[in-house]
Design a protein that fits this description.
- The structure is a single chain.
- By secondary structure, this protein is α+β, with helices and mostly antiparallel strands.
- It is built from 12 helices and 6 strands.
- Helix 10 packs antiparallel against helix 11.
Length: 480
C-alpha cells in the first residue's frame, strides 16, 4: 500500500511539473520615451519652469461667455457622460478581480428523493439499516439539507493579484481617458466659439459692403443720366450687389449651423449662443509657454492613458502566462442533512461537514490557454506601438503649432496692412469715379479686393485665437 501511495505521489508531481512549462513573453522596451528630444526645435531651448498646459482652463480663458459655455458642456456633453460610465465599468472590473482573492461563501437549502435498487450495495445497506429500534430506513429515501458552502482559490502564483493590478491600471487609464475627453471638449467649444464670432464679424463686413454697393449703384445711375456712364456700368454694380446679398445669406446659414454645432457639444436643443462680437478683432491671444518635451509625458492625459494601458497589457501577459501553472482550490461545507425534516434538529447526528483541496494544472490540449497567452502577448506589443505613436504625435503637434503661432501672427500683421491700404484705395477710387476720372471696373476691383482682405483678416484673427487654444490643449491643458 505504501508503494502504491508513492507511485500516486510521483505521478501527481510529474503532472504538476509538466503543467508548469509556460512560454516566455516578448520583452519590450519603451525606446520612444527614452529618446524624446530635449527641445521642440533647434531655435527653442525650452523652459522647464513654464508650461501653459499646467494652467487651469478657468484661468486660461477670460471671456465670461465662453467660460459659461464650457461649464454647460462639462455638465451635459453626452460623450463625456459615456466616458464617465466607462470609468464605472472599469471600477467594477477592479472589484470583480479583488473579489476573486477572497473565499466565496454561499448558503443554500435543498430537498430530494432517491430509490436505489434492492440488489445493489447501496440498496442492500439501506434495507438492513435501522435508524431506531424497529424502524427501518424509508423507501424511497428522501434527502433534506441546508448549510453553508465555501470555495477559495489560493493565489499561490500571484495570478489573481496580477489580474487585479491589471484591472487597476485599466481603471486608471479610463480616468486619464476622461481627462483627454475633457481637454478635447474644451478645445472644441472654444474653437467653435471663435469661429462663430468670426462669422458674426464677416456678416457685419458683408452688410457694410452691401451699403457701399448700393451707394455705388446710385452714383452709376446718376452718371448714366448725365451721360457720364453707360448701362453696362449700372448692370455691373447691380450684379455685384446681388452677389453680396447672396453671400450674406450664406454666412447667416453658416452662423445657424455653427450655433447648433455648439449646442450639440453642450448637449442641448437649438437656442441662441450668447456672445459679444464687438471685441473680437481686438482680442489679444494668450501667451503660450511650451516648456520642455518631457513635460508632455506628465501633462498630456492621452500619453498617460496609453502608458497605463501598456502597463495593463504587460500585467495581462503575466496573468495569462500563469494560467499554465497548477491552481490550488479549497472547498468546504457545513450544514445539516437528514432523510426526514424532523431529524434535521437532532444534533450532532444531522451535522454534515466536508473539506477538500485540489491541486490541478493543464497537461494535455493547452491550445486555449496558449491562444489566450499569444493574444495577450500580441496586445502588449500593440499597446507599445500605440504608446510610441501617442508620444510621437504629441511632440509633432506641439512642434507644428509652435511654428503655426509664429507664422499666423506674421500673416495677421500683413493682412492688417493690406486692409488699411485697400480701404484708402476705395475712397480714392470712389472720388475718381464721381469726377469721371476712373471707370466702374476700377471701383469694383478695389471694393472686391478690400472685401476679400477684410474677410481674410477676420479669418486670420480666428485662426490666431484657435491656434493658441490648440497648442494649449496639445501641451496637456484643458482638463484641470
Amino acid at each position: 500500500m505504501k508503494i502504491y501511495n508513492k507511485y500516486i505521489a510521483a505521478i501527481a508531481l510529474s503532472l504538476v511539473l509538466a503543467s508548469c512549462k509556460a512560454p516566455m513573453a516578448t520583452v519590450i522596451k519603451d525606446e520612444m520615451k527614452e529618446n524624446v528630444p530635449q527641445n521642440f526645435n533647434q531655435e527653442d531651448q525650452g523652459d522647464a519652469n513654464n508650461n501653459s498646459g499646467t494652467t487651469p482652463w478657468r484661468q486660461f480663458f477670460t471671456d465670461p461667455d465662453l467660460v459659461s459655455l464650457i461649464e454647460t458642456a462639462l455638465k451635459n456633453n453626452q460623450e463625456l457622460m459615456i466616458t464617465l460610465q466607462e470609468i464605472e465599468i472599469a471600477k467594477s472590473g477592479v472589484l470583480a478581480k479583488k473579489g476573486r482573492l477572497t473565499p466565496t461563501v454561499s448558503a443554500g437549502i435543498g430537498a430530494g428523493v432517491k430509490k436505489s435498487g434492492r440488489y445493489t450495495s447501496e440498496g442492500a445497506g439501506d434495507a438492513t439499516t435501522e435508524i431506531e429500534p424497529g424502524k427501518e430506513m424509508p423507501d424511497p429515501l428522501g434527502n433534506f439539507e441546508g448549510g453553508l458552502m465555501a470555495n477559495w482559490e489560493i493565489d499561490i502564483w500571484k495570478k489573481l493579484r496580477t489580474e487585479k493590478e491589471a484591472a487597476v491600471a485599466h481603471y486608471l487609464s479610463t480616468v486619464e481617458g476622461k481627462n483627454f475627453v475633457l481637454s478635447n471638449l474644451i478645445e472644441e467649444v472654444a474653437d467653435n466659439y471663435y469661429e462663430l464670432l468670426a462669422l458674426d464679424n464677416q456678416l457685419d463686413i458683408i452688410q457694410q459692403y452691401i451699403k457701399l454697393q448700393q451707394r455705388a449703384l446710385e452714383i452709376s445711375k446718376i452718371q448714366k443720366e448725365a451721360a457720364a456712364a453707360t448701362e453696362l456700368a449700372v448692370k455691373k454694380f447691380e450684379a455685384e450687389l446681388a452677389k453680396s446679398k447672396a453671400a450674406e445669406y450664406t454666412i447667416r446659414q453658416n452662423i445657424t449651423e455653427k450655433e447648433n454645432q455648439i449646442n450639440a457639444l453642450l448637449g442641448r436643443y437649438p437656442q441662441p449662443i450668447v456672445r459679444k462680437k464687438e471685441s473680437f478683432m481686438s482680442t489679444v491671444p494668450q501667451t503660450v509657454y511650451t516648456g520642455i518635451p518631457s513635460q508632455l509625458l506628465a501633462n498630456r492625459p492621452d500619453i498617460k492613458q496609453a502608458e497605463l494601458e501598456l502597463k495593463a497589457s504587460k500585467l495581462d501577459v503575466e496573468a495569462a502566462r500563469k494560467e499554465f501553472y497548477p491552481s490550488l482550490e479549497i472547498s468546504a461545507t457545513l450544514g445539516l442533512e437528514a432523510f426526514k425534516p424532523s431529524y434535521l434538529v437532532k444534533l450532532p447526528e444531522s451535522i454534515a461537514t466536508s473539506l477538500a483541496g485540489e491541486l490541478a494544472g493543464p497537461l494535455i490540449n493547452k491550445s486555449a490557454i496558449k491562444a489566450n497567452f499569444q493574444t495577450a502577448d500580441a496586445r502588449q506589443i500593440q499597446s507599445l506601438y500605440e504608446y510610441d505613436k501617442t508620444i510621437l504625435n504629441a511632440y509633432l503637434d506641439v512642434a507644428n503649432l509652435m511654428s503655426k503661432v509664429k507664422n499666423i501672427d506674421q500673416y495677421y500683421q500683413l493682412k492688417s496692412q493690406e486692409t488699411k491700404a485697400l480701404d484708402q484705395s476705395i475712397d480714392i477710387a470712389n472720388q475718381l469715379f464721381k469726377n469721371s476720372r476712373a471707370d466702374y471696373l476700377e471701383v469694383l476691383l478695389n471694393q472686391r479686393d478690400a472685401l476679400d482682405a477684410k474677410l481674410e483678416l477676420i479669418e486670420a484673427k480666428q485662426k490666431q485665437l484657435s491656434t493658441v487654444v490648440d497648442i494649449y490643449k496639445s501641451l496637456g491643458g484643458g482638463w484641470k
